[in-house]
Amino acid sequence: MEVSHSVKERTIAENSLVILLQGLCNRVTTVELRDESTASGRVTNVDAFMNVRLAEVTFMDRQGTLCHLDELFVTGRNVRYVHIPDDVDIRATIEQQLQAIHRVRYFGGRDKGRKEFPRTKHR
Amino acid sequence: LYLNFAKDNKLASFLQAYDQHLNMILGDVEETVTTIEIDEETYEEIYKSTKRNIPMLFVRGDGVVLVAPPLRVG
């Protein structure tokens, strides 16, 4: 469970479907890009902006030329589709990711540690 | 559900999840790509259409143009 180290990224991910893509880490999937090329490989990391890092990738461009790459980084804006493997339970994956974020957020207990969203003192 | 995409791609599928950016998770997708080819000699327009089936797909909201309920016959 890799949770992002940035508060901003965690909140963005927590409130959108990117969190499902983050749960696909270490799965082999196909990412289709906006320009109709495809990249098939193992997802190593997805951030809140949908930038995707893949490993052991087979990249096929629009013309159909195949090429094998050890690593590939795709900018979030260029993603069109992400194929989700059949053996993924979507609801469970999302819940696991949310739990990982909550574990990080409430680390140290209620009264210890730096709080992410401090309770307001005066109103 | 029918979704119309940028660049003449249509998707017909069941909507499973969505978020405010219109990123969607679709089950049982049938994608139809329509292309127009122009014959160099006769200048005729030939419409080509290719279909593809994908069991489960995540779609980025950027590319979504239209979302519509299935058309009812009659």
UniProtKB/TrEMBL annotation, chain B:
<protein>
    <recommendedName>
        <fullName>U6 snRNA-associated Sm-like protein LSm3</fullName>
    </recommendedName>
</protein>
<comment type="subunit">
    <text>LSm subunits form a heteromer with a doughnut shape.</text>
</comment>
<comment type="function">
    <text>Binds specifically to the 3'-terminal U-tract of U6 snRNA.</text>
</comment>
<dbReference type="InterPro" id="IPR047575">
    <property type="entry name" value="Sm"/>
</dbReference>
<dbReference type="InterPro" id="IPR010920">
    <property type="entry name" value="LSM_dom_sf"/>
</dbReference>
<dbReference type="GO" id="GO:0000398">
    <property type="term" value="P:mRNA splicing, via spliceosome"/>
</dbReference>
<keyword id="KW-0687">Ribonucleoprotein</keyword>
<feature type="domain" description="Sm">
    <location>
        <begin position="1"/>
        <end position="73"/>
    </location>
</feature>
<dbReference type="GO" id="GO:0005681">
    <property type="term" value="C:spliceosomal complex"/>
</dbReference>
<comment type="similarity">
    <text>Belongs to the snRNP Sm proteins family.</text>
</comment>
<dbReference type="InterPro" id="IPR001163">
    <property type="entry name" value="Sm_dom_euk/arc"/>
</dbReference>
<dbReference type="GO" id="GO:0005688">
    <property type="term" value="C:U6 snRNP"/>
</dbReference>
<keyword id="KW-0694">RNA-binding</keyword>
<keyword id="KW-0747">Spliceosome</keyword>
<keyword id="KW-0507">mRNA processing</keyword>
<dbReference type="InterPro" id="IPR034105">
    <property type="entry name" value="Lsm3"/>
</dbReference>
<keyword id="KW-0508">mRNA splicing</keyword>
<dbReference type="GO" id="GO:0046540">
    <property type="term" value="C:U4/U6 x U5 tri-snRNP complex"/>
</dbReference>
<dbReference type="Pfam" id="PF01423">
    <property type="entry name" value="LSM"/>
</dbReference>
<dbReference type="GO" id="GO:0003723">
    <property type="term" value="F:RNA binding"/>
</dbReference>
<keyword id="KW-0539">Nucleus</keyword>
<dbReference type="InterPro" id="IPR040002">
    <property type="entry name" value="Sm-like_LSM3"/>
</dbReference>
